[in-house]
């Protein structure tokens, strides 16, 4: 079999897969929103907010070197429920790519009050891949272009490429600013991450 150099991941059908490149993302996202509004007319009142939210996700993703980005945006009355999943490919500074070695480079953050940030470092099991290192919790995400920060539910899973490409790690990140749904969102991110696989 050819050595895996790519990857695939599956998100629910209701999610948007996002073009993050600055030269094409605005027109691509406008077309994407128009198509979704045609298929789901109830989203029409949220067209502007939906476009703005997706452009924000795309800008942030590109600024952080993301190779893949998908987002969920659902309208409820005057509110939007948003979440995103991204995949970045990074270099591993350590030659040891085992989950314990990667976890040793990650730092937990104890809970500080009901609304404060926190982070757990855990080991997860991905189908067809095996044990991997993961962080999960609530963190303050810095927005691109000096636009401030937003407190978000976040999960990051660190998956080393197999074989001769083991110096590369796929970092799968799920994030959402909807803190009251922290447990449900972490379960959702776990399910989406579980579909990740390497491809030739």
From TrEMBL:
This is Uncharacterized protein. It comes from Actinoplanes awajinensis subsp. mycoplanecinus.
């Amino acid at each position: 079999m050819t050595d895996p150099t790519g990857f695939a991941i599956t998100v629910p059908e209701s999610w948007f897969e996002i073009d993050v490149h600055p030269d094409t993302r605005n027109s691509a996202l406008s077309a994407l929103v128009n198509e979704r509004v045609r298929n789901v007319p109830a989203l029409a009142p949220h067209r502007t907010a939906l476009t703005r939210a997706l452009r924000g996700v795309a800008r942030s993703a590109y600024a952080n070197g993301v190779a893949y980005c998908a987002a969920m945006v659902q309208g409820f009355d005057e509110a939007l429920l948003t979440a995103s999943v991204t995949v970045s490919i990074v270099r591993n500074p350590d030659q040891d790519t085992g989950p314990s070695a990667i976890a040793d480079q990650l730092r937990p953050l104890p809970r500080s009050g009901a609304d404060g940030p926190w982070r757990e470092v855990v080991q997860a099991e991905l189908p067809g891949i095996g044990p991997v290192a993961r962080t999960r919790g609530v963190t303050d995400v810095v927005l691109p272009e000096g636009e401030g920060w937003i407190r978000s539910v976040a999960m990051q899973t660190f998956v080393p490429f197999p074989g001769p490409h083991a110096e590369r790690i796929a970092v799968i990140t799920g994030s959402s600013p909807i803190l009251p749904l922290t447990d449900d969102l972490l379960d959702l991110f776990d399910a989406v991450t579980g579909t990740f696989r390497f491809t030739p």
